[in-house]
Every structure is written in C-alpha cells, then in structure tokens.
Design goal:
Transcriptional Co-activator pc4, Chain A, globular, 21% helix, 45% strand, alpha+beta, 2 helices
Length: 136
C-alpha cells in the first residue's frame, strides 16, 4: 500500500489504497484512507470505493491538468457519501472540495481550496501510473 500526496502551500491531501483483489467485481472493493489538511484544519477518514472508479478518477485528473476544464470526483457508493472533487478554470487554478467524516458521523470536515495547476501534474501522473490497469 503506497501513499500518494498532493502538497500545496496551504493544502495537503494524502491517499493510501488497500485493494481487495478478490472482491474486484463488487462496487466496494477498496479502502481508501484519506488525510486532509486545509488551512490548519485536518481530518483522516476511510472511504469504501471501487478501484475501477478510482482509476477513472485518476485519468480525469490528468485531463483536468491538460485541458484546464472538467471535474473529477471520487465518492463512496454507499455509507455517508464521503467525496473528493477536483475542478479547473481557464486561469490555471484547480479547486478541490470534499466531505469527510468518521463512521459515526460525529466529526465532519467539509473543505475547499484552490491552487495552481502545476501542483496537480505530479499527483495525477503518479495515480495514473499506479492504477491505470484498473480502468474499465
């Protein structure tokens, strides 16, 4: 299980995936551990996702970087609907938004931050390289 990190001036996103290959045909076959630090606030949560959806998400991040348009979202198909969404604007900024909570939903973090597109390039390439074999 490797860690993938997006680190900007005032935002940090860390993602680690635990893929259950024996469950690959199910819509929830991967536990994604997400850590976010956004302007001094932080949260860590697990998300149950589909690795095939995550591979598409990684591909969409590359498209966003290249075209400065579109959105990419990874979310839980069930549960508390935790999510992370990236979008771009023509000025070269990437906006990331998300919602994380603990399993009892006692603690929540809704976050949003924008940063220069150059931060996205190494992160998206690393994800595509690691997970492209799972694209549908």
């Amino acid at each position: 299980m490797s860690e993938h990190i997006l680190n900007t001036e005032n935002f940090r996103l860390s993602i680690s995936l635990n893929i259950f290959e024996s469950d690959i045909e199910y819509s929830s076959n991967t536990i994604m551990t997400v850590s976010v630090t956004n302007d001094g606030f932080s949260a860590k949560a697990d998300m149950d996702i589909d690795i095939k959806e995550f591979a598409e998400f990684a591909n969409e991040l590359s498209v966003i970087y290249e075209s400065l348009s579109g959105t990419a979202t990874i979310k839980e198909p069930y549960g508390h609907q935790k999510f992370i969404t990236f979008s771009a604007d023509k000025a070269g900024y990437i906006t990331v938004k998300g919602f994380l909570c603990d399993n009892l939903k006692n603690n929540e973090l809704r976050f949003e931050n924008s940063f220069d597109q150059t931060y996205l390039k190494p992160f998206s390439r690393q994800l595509c390289s690691a997970y492209s074999k799972y694209i549908k």
